[in-house]
Amino acid sequence: MTQAHPIRLLLIDDHPLVRDGLRARFDASPNLQVVGEAGNAQEALTRAKTASPDLALMDISMRGTNGIELTAQFREQFPHIAVLILSMHDNAEYVRQAVRAGARGYVLKDAPAHEIVTAIERVARGDSYYSAAIAARVVQASTSHAPIDSLTPREREILSRIARGLANKQIATEMDLSVRTVETHRLNIKRKLGIEGQAELIKFAVENRL
């Protein structure tokens, strides 16, 4: 049964051929409409503002800001846009980090076209969807972990610099990032750790030997 309004999709993958293949698949479905494409994080954030998608179909492996980090940025800046990870990686760490960053689903790239469409439809209406091949990893991702385990490698790098007393601008220069990206990471670190103040953040870093 066709929906009254097609689901508006933003395709985020740094390989144009992959995006072309996805668009060809989705053009065959009356329930889906590709409203934008992006090959990196900056393009994705810009398209998200201008194209107003319902769902972002996100790859993990991208140059620069990866898909997990970008998912966290979407969660902060565009909480109304659902994120579905479409990746070739099926290891538990990627699944766990994607879920913690805010992804509502995780599907493998080699999944049949009809499964990817089903995943999009379910995630767009507020449900979650995970490929059967990684269902066990989702269970693992949903179990309790120490607070430090919730941080991505990039967030740990930034936290270690915060512990050294570096300001956002200094961290941005040292890591070759924008100040805004560092600010976003800092907010995500505080949210994940349940920390508000700078002193508490430094104390946590020291106690965890960062």
From TrEMBL:
Pfam families with a match to the protein in the record: GerE, Response_reg
HTH luxR-type domain mapped to chain residues: 144-209
UniProt GO BP: phosphorelay signal transduction system; regulation of DNA-templated transcription
One MF term in the entry's GO annotations: DNA binding
Gene3D superfamilies to which the protein is assigned, alphabetical: 3.40.50.2300
Modified residues (4-aspartylphosphate): 59
CDD domains for the chain: LuxR_C_like (cd06170), REC_NarL-like (cd17535)
Domain Response regulatory: 8-124
Keywords recorded for this protein, A-Z: DNA-binding, Phosphoprotein, Transcription, Transcription regulation
PANTHER family the record matches: NITRATE_NITRITE RESPONSE REGULATOR PROTEIN NARP, TWO-COMPONENT RESPONSE REGULATOR
Protein name: LuxR family transcriptional regulator
Organism (species): Pandoraea eparura
